[in-house]
Amino acid sequence: MKTILQGGVIIGHDTNFGNAANYRDYDRKEDKLGEVKDTETTGLECALEQKDVPDTLKIRVKALEILLDNSGIIAFLRRENGKVEFVSAAVEEFGYKARDFTSGKVNYNKLVHPDDLDRVILELKENALEGAAGFSQKYRIRTKKEYVRAIEEKTEFIRDENGNVAYIAGILTDITDN
To answer: Which whole number is the average pLDDT over 7-23?
Structure first.
């Protein structure tokens, strides 16, 4: 099996973690960042075979999900038409499950405080139409139990080859106590 170095994780290499015998050739003075023995890779370069790409992406996605779930930050990815593709588990802080949004059961706009909704939508549309890469805005939302929370949203637009918004990605941070 070919050993592949990806972002500090060695994929496809049996490390026998914890087995001291594996460390007999290890020399800290000679260790170089990104060096992998018995492979065609050197330095920080990586040799990915086509069949390794899906596995590598799955591992990266899972690692990112774990980091997000433990960060307290609510991350989201939705299509331009509003369909939510992903929302991190931290959304449970507001009383909802991630699947409530990805299934379409809950529309995020229903959470935005009615006094802020028109402004939030207008700023989103204006920035998208003006070709902005992203923007930030603050507004209020209502939790499932109807508590009002202050939110800072940092949004990035992912555009197609024609420059049209295909996806909207971002993070939500609860700034109620700030």
So the answer is: 38
CA 79, CA 137: separation in Å to the nearest integer?
19
SS3 116: helix
Dump pLDDT digits (tens) for 106-136.
Answer: 999 999 999 999 999 999 999 999 999 999 9
Can you name the residues that pair with 150 across neighbouring β-strands?
Answer: 140
pLDDT for 68 equals 79
CB 10 within 8 A of CB 3: yes
CA dihedral 66, 69, 74, 77 (to 10 degrees): 40
- pLDDT at position 10 over 50: no
Amino acid at residue number 49: E
**Of all residues in the chain, what percent carry a pLDDT higher than 70?**
71
Angle at 44 between CA 58 and CA 23, to 5 degrees: 85
Is 4 in contact with 41 (CB distance < 8 Å)? yes
Q: Euclidean distance between the first and final Cα of the chain, in Å?
A: 51
Q: Residue 158 contacts by C-beta under 8 Å, 6 or more apart in sequence?
A: 165, 166, 167, 168, 169
Residue 138: closest CA among 173, 170, 114: 173
